[in-house]
Each structure stands twice: as structure tokens, then as C-alpha cells.
Amino acid sequence: MNSDGPILVTGSSGLIGRAFIARMRPAGFQSLRFDIRETAQSAFGDLRDNRALERAVADAAGIVHLGGVSRVVWGERDPEQCWAVNVDATRKILALALNSRRRPWLVYASSREVYGQQAVFPVSETAQLMPKNIYARSKVAAEELVLDARKAGLTTAIARFSSVYGDVDDHADRVVPAFAFAAAWGGAMRIDGADCAFDFTHVADVAAGLKKICLALAAGEKSLPALHFVSGVRTSLRELAGLAADLAHCPVQVSLDAPRTFDISEFYGDPARTAAILGWRASTSLHVGLGELIRHFRTRGQLHSRPEARHVAQGF
């Protein structure tokens, strides 16, 4: 990888950002953190702040653009901010990269949501994009901007993720950490759409995949197609809740509710293209990853005091 300069990581304090930076650190690569949740002044950055973006991009040899509104429900609550952060800020970053003397390569973090509700599974990267909600539309629009920047001469890649999990410091109401927490301490699980099914991918696998895609771009690869970083395994929310309870050996209360109207009901992706191009496949099974997460929640509780069980809902 080009080590002549640092990698700018937007969304650096998020689930994937933390794991990616940790993955790159042992190899000696420097990361420029950029996140509105960072506490250090040098790492704090708002994607809506053009001057902050200018300063950050100017020093970068590469960019991993993970930042933005990252959940469907947040986009529904504030559509204007979703578009401003996910589309307008991405447009600004791409323009800055194109005009930078360093001309950094860029990896854009996209989502399974771009496909909307598909009928044929597993979903391949060539499936028609049919975004169902504002978050999904913002990701499709940003992908189009990335492709336009590539045509203008920027080295780019698009990575599509699905239901990434694996850290106790994830958002508490996302479905995997929520179910893991409830199972660890005998709490309650509310399942919004028990038969909805998704592709759950461990964050360590995603970070390893991002490293591979960055290595390819830094080595001069200029024609990578959009790539899945998915497990290829279908798991319903009912099955996820049952697995969490079984792994924890702890009684839980489960209540069922209707699925949310703005969510898709099923997705699992085909990882074959990524395996063929990058040699990447997810290696952490849901059984192993969820079990580790439950143990980590228990360890954290024992180190402090047993937390109150939370009533949780489906989240992505």
C-alpha cells in the first residue's frame, strides 16, 4: 500500500471505522480520523463543514469514506440531514479529492439497502437498484457520484455492507447488539417482523475486506466493480433471537410486532464476486460472532455492575 501519506477515515469512531483503523495500525499505516463523535480536537470533524473537509482531504493519500447517516430509521426521522450528510458531503469529498495535488484513492461505504426488496436470492452486485427509503436513495445517489468521479480520473471503489455487528460499543438498539445484550442478562426482546431475514456480517471480517480493497486501489487497480462484504447466509430475526437465547443459556422474554413499513423484509447477498477478485470471504460465523458478543456484554457488566435489562426493538 502507498505509505507516502495517511488514510483519511470518515466515520472513524463508528463500528466499522474503529475496526478498520485497528486492522491497519499493526502494519504501520497512519490514519486521519474524522468524525463528529471524536473527542480529540485533531480528529473531530463534521461532514457538513467544508473547511474541515478541505483540511482533512489535503493530507490524505487515500480515503475510506464510512461517515454519514448510517441507519434507515435515522433517515426517516430527518430526511434533509440524511441527504446533506450522505450525498452533499460525499460530492464535496469527491471534488476535493479530484482537485487535490495528491489525488487520493477513495473507498465508498455503501449498503445492501440500495437493492430495495429483491425477489431473487442470494442478491448479486448486478441486481437492479430499487431503493425503498430515503437512506437507500441517498446511498444510490452517492454511488452515482463515486462512479462519476471515477470517469473524471479518480481511483475509486464501492463496498456494500449488510447488518455489520460485533462490538459492544455499537448502537444499543441495533438488532444484533440489542438481542445479545438482552440474552446476556435475561432481558426482553421485541422483534419487529420475526420472519424478516438478513445477512449478518462480523465487523472483523468487514475490516479485513476493507484492507484488501485499499491494498488493491493503492497498488493501482482502477476498475474494481461494486463489491459485497457479506456472509451469504440468510438468518431470520426469529432465528437470531433464538440463537442468542440458546448461546446465553438465559431466559428471555420475546414479544412480536409487525415489521416497519420503510424496511425491506429480506436480504442475503452473494459474496462470490468479492471472493474471486479479492480472495475475501467472511470467516466468522454468526454462531461464533454472536457468542463472543454475548460474552463481552457479560464481562463488561461484571466489571462495573449488572446493568438493567433493556427493552429492545429491531434496528439496523
Structure characterization notes:
With 316 residues, this protein is an alpha/beta fold. The protein folds into 2 domains: 7-164 and 199-229, NAD(P)-binding Rossmann-like Domain (Rossmann fold, 3-Layer(aba) Sandwich), CATH 3.40.50; 167-197 and 234-266 and 284-312, UDP-galactose 4-epimerase, domain 1, CATH 3.90.25. It is 41% helix and 15% strand. Strands 2-1-3-4-5-10 form a 6-stranded parallel sheet, with helices on both faces. The longest helix has 21 residues, at 79-99. The protein starts with 6 loop residues before the first strand and ends with a strand. 47% of the residues are buried.
Range of strand content: 15-25%
Radius of gyration: 19 Å
Number of separate strands: 13
Distance between the termini: 32 Å
- CATH homologous superfamily label of the largest domain: NAD(P)-binding Rossmann-like Domain
What is the mean predicted local confidence, pLDDT?
A: 93
The second-level CATH architecture of the largest domain is: 3-Layer(aba) Sandwich
CATH topology of the largest domain: Rossmann fold
What would you say about this model in short?
The protein has helices spanning 15-24, 50-58, 72-77, 79-99, 134-151, 175-185, 203-218, 237-248, 272-278, 286-303, and strands spanning 7-10, 31-34, 62-65, 105-111, 156-161, 164-165, 188-192, 197-198, 201-202, 227-229, 235-236, 253-257, 311-312. With 316 residues, it is of the alpha/beta class.
Topology:
Layout: E1 7-10, H1 15-24, E2 31-34, H2 50-58, E3 62-65, H3 72-77, H4 79-99, E4 105-111, H5 134-151, E5 156-161, E6 164-165, H6 175-185, E7 188-192, E8 197-198, E9 201-202, H7 203-218, E10 227-229, E11 235-236, H8 237-248, E12 253-257, H9 272-278, H10 286-303, E13 311-312
Parallel strand pairs: 1-2, 1-3, 3-4, 4-5, 5-10, 6-9, 7-12, 7-13
Antiparallel strand pairs: 8-11
Helix pairs in contact: 1-7, 2-4, 4-5, 6-8, 6-10, 8-10
